[in-house]
Write a structure and sequence with these properties.
By secondary structure, this protein is mainly β. The protein has two domains: 156 residues, Distorted Sandwich (Glucose Permease (Domain IIA)); 96 residues, Immunoglobulin-like, CATH 2.60.40. 4% of the residues lie in helices and 40% in strands. It is built from two helices and 22 strands. The strands form five sheets. Strands 1, 2, 4, 5, 6, 8, 10, 11 and 14 form a nine-stranded antiparallel sheet that branches. A four-stranded antiparallel sheet has the order 15-16-17-20. A hairpin with a 2-residue loop joins β5 and β6. It is globular and about 50 Å long.
Length: 300
């Protein structure tokens, strides 16, 4: 089995269990502790630049995220939950405001996160989500007549007294460096797994996409810009250290599928293949959960 004795501190996802009976005071020690459970709303290893001052519509502590070099370069990129919780809004806001496609997640204790302007929404109201689970994609939806370029508008709120309930965003225990900062995501959804996708695939690989395998694991697609190789790895989240059926596969369009499947303690993979300028199909399995992508991510 794939096992090494590595001891790493793991941040626990913020769930609804044990929520306080009343909302914590925004500047209290309790609020500060709860805030440290949030991660960047993008897949593990991706680097994004947040800006809280680029739009005249912004209120304090709201953030717009981009990472591409052109206005719509980020269109369709995955957006993931900053912490575990329950979806309370998944709808297009129409003419009500400028949010367009909006997902709101309730994290308990009065905390909620907002993900606006999404191109698509992948969750529904009442659905429970885990930290790092895909909830939608970056978009540019808004109210009629409001033409914007693709970006993710992200907010953290505590309580219901708008707009004073908008809080400073904290990622991986560190307060965002307002007004502008470039941040690398530690939203790895590993659930105690001591490995990251980058550790498994190796130097030079960055996460392109990910998919939750229920609560049993997460499968990641990575790409190395320097050599044109893709890599797929499935990280387990349950039965860690115990050999269980785990699979990772990668198929470059026009080529034979490459699969790593066996009883592993922590991960399946890495599965690597050269794919410059080509579409790939990727996926994996952990326990009884499986994910199979279409041919996509052509050239990256």
């Amino acid at each position: 089995m794939k096992f090494r004795a590595i001891g790493l501190a793991v941040l626990l996802a913020l769930g609804t269990a044990g929520a306080a009976a009343a909302d914590p005071v925004p500047e209290s020690e309790e609020a500060a502790i709860l805030a440290t459970n949030f991660q960047l709303p993008f897949p593990c290893g991706q680097t994004w630049t947040g800006n809280s001052s680029a739009s005249s519509a912004h209120r304090s502590w709201e953030i717009d995220f981009n990472r591409g070099s052109s206005p719509d370069a980020d269109l369709g990129d995955p957006v993931v939950a900053a912490a575990a919780g329950t979806v309370v809004i998944s709808a297009h806001q129409g003419s009500a405001n400028g949010f367009g496609n909006l997902v709101k997640i309730d994290h308990g204790g009065g905390w909620a996160t907002y993900y606006a302007h999404l191109n698509e929404r992948n969750v529904s109201v009442g659905q429970s989500v885990t930290q790092g689970q895909r909830i939608g994609t970056v978009g540019k939806t808004s109210k009629p007549g409001n033409n914007i370029s693709a970006h993710l508008h992200y907010e953290v709120r505590l309580g219901s007294d708008y707009p004073s309930n908008i809080q400073k965003a904290v990622f991986n225990g560190v307060t965002f460096g307002y007004p502008i900062q470039t941040v690398t995501s530690n939203n790895c959804g590993q659930g105690g797994n001591p490995y990251t996708p980058q550790q498994v695939c190796g130097s030079g690989y960055g996460v392109v996409d990910s998919a939750a395998l229920g609560t049993a694991g997460t499968v990641y697609l990575l790409y190395n810009n320097s050599n044109g190789y893709n890599c797929v790895v499935t990280l387990k989240r349950t039965s860690l250290g115990t050999p269980t059926a785990t699979t990772a596969y990668l198929e470059v369009q026009g080529s034979t599928r490459i699969t790593d499947s066996g009883n592993y303690g922590y991960y399946a993979g890495p599965v690597r293949a050269s794919a410059p300028g080509k579409c790939v199909r990727w996926g994996g399995k952990a326990g009884s959960y499986a994910y199979d992508s279409p041919f996509e991510h052509c050239g990256s």
